[in-house]
Amino acid sequence: MPDADKLAGETEDWEMAKKYIVPGLQRGLQILQAFSRDRTEIGAPEIAKELGIPRSTVFRLMQTLEFMGFIERAKNSSEYRLGVGVLSLGFEYFASLEFIELARPILEKLRDDTGFSAHLVIRDGWDVVFVLKAAAKDTFSNSVNVGLRLPAHSSILGRMLLADLSAAELKQVFPEGKLSKFSDQTPTTLAEMSKLLNEDRKRGCAIGASYFHSGIGSISAQIKDNSHRVVAAINVIYHDSTVKRSDVEGKYLKRVLQAAGEISRLLDYHPGSIDRNTGNYP
Fold first, then answer.
1. β-sheet bridge partners, residue 236
2. Per-residue pLDDT tens over the stretch 83-112
């Protein structure tokens, strides 16, 4: 049986803490919490109804959040979506996680073993965000910095993250169904992208040359956690004209997959058996 005195003490502490809650701040945070992967845009009337507060109050709260950069108006709509201010907070949190520091030496060793710049990214909506970089001594590697955002559908790294989504989730991320074109290889419809993602899903990795930038190749692999969901992706980038295709599909791919497996295990991911022919993990 729970200790009655302990429960009474916890209840008293909670009641005391409630006295110091700032209602306006609480409501502002509740607005931010209303957004999700499946609910990317929300209007003020919806918020007012859900929180049970006047529209005028919601309007002032949302104006404040917009001024601070935490939300922004959706294009051609009266609704709002999360802004980059939220991403900056999320990035600072993610960067503070022990996981980043644990992954850093693995990424640096991947760079040293291959001679290529290596990166770790996460997904934010329809973008990928670079959160860790191990730079090689290449002139073009300096163009990729921590915090850089790229459209997820336009990069091999993005495909690794999108491959984890269901058809319904993809439609939530790309509701219009049309995708911007960045190269001859960029998919421009959900149907085209879904075909690529089905192949990526089976392999857990992808190789691409001139997919986003002409002349630059990328070898990417997925990072999974203990829920078996893809939470991040890593890659190495190289000059496509200077690297043999056999090496890309052989020793370099194997090394990227090994690094991805090591980082996934930091997140308590247990894939089971590894395919000895491909080196892939399920």
1. 118, 219
2. 877 766 766 665 556 778 889 999 999 999
Contact 122, 131 (CB under 8 A): yes
- Residue whose entry in the numeric block shows the structure tokens 């990069």: 155
By the 8 A CB rule, do 158 and 165 touch? no
Q: How far is 282 from 279, CA to CA, in rounded Å?
A: 10
Domain 4-82 has CATH 1.10.10.10: yes
The number of helix segments (H) and strand segments (E) in the chain equals: 11, 8
Percent helix, percent strand, percent coil in the chain, to nearest 5: 50, 20, 30
Give the H or E element holding residue 95. Answer: helix 84-96
Q: Are 42 and 34 in contact (CB under 8 A)?
A: yes
Q: What does the DSSP 8-state code read for residue 207?
A: E
pLDDT tens for 115-174 read 999 999 988 888 888 888 988 876 555 567 787 888 888 888 998 999 888 888 888 888
* CATH top-level class of 87-266: alpha beta
Q: How many Cα atoms are found within 13 Å in the side-chain-facing hemisphere of 260? A: 33
Percent of the chain with pLDDT over 90: 25
Write the burial class of residue 244 (CB in 10 Å: 0-12 exposed, 13-18 middle, 19+ buried): exposed
204, 271 contact by CB (below 8 A): no
3-state secondary structure of 101: helix
**145, 194, 149: which is closest to 167 by C-alpha?**
194
Q: Where are the domains of the chain?
A: 4-82, 87-266
Place of tokens 């692999």: 221
Cβ-proximal residues to 84 (8 Å cutoff; 6+ apart), any chain: 69, 72
DSSP 3-state assignment of 134?
strand
